[in-house]
Amino acid sequence: MQLDLAKLKISALEAAAVLAVILAVISIGIIHFEMVPHLPILGAIILLIIYGRLKGLSFNEVESGLIKGAASGLGAVFIFFFIGMLISSWMASGTIPTLMFYGFELFSGTPLYLAAFIVCSIIGVCIGSAFTTSATIGVAFLGMAAAMDASMAIMAGAIVSGSFLGDKMSPLSDTTNLASGTVGVNLFEHTQNMLWTTVPGFILSAGLFWVLSPKESKGSMEEMNLFLQALHNETNIGWTALIPFLLIIILAVKKVPAITTLSASILSAVGVTFMVDSSMTFADMGKILFSGFVMDSKVEQLNAILSRGGIDSMMFSVSLVLLALGMGGLLFLLGIIPALLRAIEGMLTSTAKLLVSTVLTAIGINVLVGEQYLSILLPGNTFQEHYKKLGLSAKTLSRALEDAGTVVNPLIPWGVSGVFLTQVLGVSTIEYVPFAFFCLLCPVLTLISGFTNIGISAEKVKIAHD
After folding, report:
1. Contact 392, 459 (CB under 8 A)
2. What is the pLDDT of residues 385-425, one digit of tens each?
């Protein structure tokens, strides 16, 4: 979906009016009537189709825009399917239970939410995927939180914060490579320059998670010990269960494509499952991979935590992502987003104004389209020449794209990341957003750098000021 694909050229005022109606329909449906996001977005799509017909477009043209928008998310859809199988196979093989078991022992003296944030950050940097980090290590930490009767919303916020910090900073991440490649910045210069906002964001987030972490009590420790005993007795805890986890890290570091990496880890988990469970049949494994792993023990808490995953569990996410991206395709086809982008180009006369425009555009694309890659590509292509005119280094732009594009997507309930995380973690986007501190801080820190010129690098001419 690019700006030159628009079939209509409308005024910014008309585009803003149509957009206001669309956002009102979605907001009222989700917030006031508490509908699942699918229905309000479907309503918005119908309104956009009617608008397109009233403006003289044929049904075929409108349908083409809808399909092109949805098609842009097919890569994410396939990843969703593989992640669903990864979770269920890791449950069956004992990989996630083992990570939980040793995680309790390793971080018993560390504040819970702080531990989750730091570990997810480290793993995220190592493998370059917020989705994989959240679906594996994140699920294990959620199990810890449930065992300690801690807040699932805060824990989800810590997991999301750490996972997307890792995704943002990892040289292996597709979004990191996309942001640097879009504006022509060396990958390692880009990651180094992001430290200006990442380090303060990490420190502030770590402090907040440390303060919010629950204090261990005698009662909670006894309850945790009972849970650990049940975990040890009912699941496969051991080094063999860590093979799928180690494999996914090794392949990610070697930059093996995501689907290949996930497939290898799933197959290894299936192999471990057959090795440790002699009663497992191919039919049983097929059911686990599609419908999810079901824990059947005498401990209800254990059953609730470990029963999850499978392709079927991703269908809610897949349908919502396709609808949201289809709506985004219509917003481009009808000229609504292009009109708004053209309207702000004349106001880009200073560093602060340019960064504000970049941040708001990236956030706006996330809200309107729900797609992480477009929130990087569109502002990157739109504002690149303006950064050159003001003498600003392109790495200033690439950092802003990550701070307002990559890490904002998980905060949008109908965004690709928000939908995925809600499904995998079992905590709604609205619940964890107030605690996704790192994701909330990054856009703010980028704006602060624009107004103070801290961390802003110039290339050939002096930076313009208001």
Report:
1. yes
2. 889 888 999 999 999 999 999 999 999 998 889 999 999 99
Beta-carbon contacts of 265 under 8 Å, excluding residues fewer than 6 positions away, are: 86, 89, 90, 244, 245, 247, 248, 251
User: Three-state DSSP class for 392?
Assistant: strand
The pLDDT tens digits of the residues spanning 72-116 come to: 778 778 888 998 899 899 999 999 899 888 877 777 778 889 999
Which residue in 69, 172, 74, 131 sits closest to 417, CA to CA? Answer: 131
User: What percentage of the chain reaches a pLDDT higher than 70?
Assistant: 95
Exposure of 50 in the CB half-sphere (CA atoms within 13 A): 9
Q: How far apart are CA 58 and CA 389, in angstroms?
A: 40
Distance between CA atoms of 52 and 22, rounded to whole angstroms?
14
Nearest to 416 by CA among 341, 310, 319: 319
In the chain, where the domains are located: 3-73+315-452, 75-312
Strands, E assignment, 181-338? none
Sign, CA dihedral 406-407-412-415, equals positive
For the segment 271-297, the average pLDDT, to the nearest whole number, is 95
